[in-house]
Amino acid sequence: MTDILVPETTRIGLLARIEAKPEYVREVEELLTGALALAREEAGTTLWFALRLGPATFGIFDTFATEENRQAHLQGKIAAALMENVPKLLAEDPEILPVEVLAAKLS
Predict the structure, then answer these.
(1) C-alpha atoms less than 13 angstroms from C-alpha of 2 in its C-beta half-sphere
(2) What is the dihedral of CA 60, 42, 12, 72, to 10 degrees?
(3) For residue range 43-100, what is the model confidence (pLDDT) as tens digits?
(4) Which residues in 2-41 are b (16+ Cβ under 10 Å) and which e?
(5) CB–CB of 71/12 below 8 Å?
(6) How far is it, in rounded angstroms, from Cα 14 to Cα 75?
(7) Alpha-carbon distance 13 to 70, whole Å?
(8) Does residue 2 surpass a pLDDT of 60?
(9) CB neighbours of 11 closer than 8 A, spacing ≥ 6?
């Protein structure tokens, strides 16, 4: 059933929840908005969103056609930049969940 509800390029994804330290909210926002350029370089990342979920809470949602693409993203430049900044900018380690897209409207 998923085949007709979700394009092949968006079947699997990642959902990350990121909690900034209150004094570094602006820096986390800038890190995430700046990561758009890196996401555009990843051929295997088909959709990429940086989100604000609350005053100091952010998220990233992205999709991929294959598990290999998802793993490449997890080993890529965005993940490295995020993890490099955890001690300084984040209140806790990011929560990163693999997800399956059940249905999608893309246009």
Answers:
(1) 8
(2) -100
(3) 999 999 999 999 999 999 999 999 999 999 999 999 999 999 999 999 999 999 999 9
(4) eeeebeebbbbbbebebbbeeebbeebeebbeebeebbee
(5) no
(6) 13
(7) 7
(8) no
(9) 2, 63, 64, 65, 100, 101
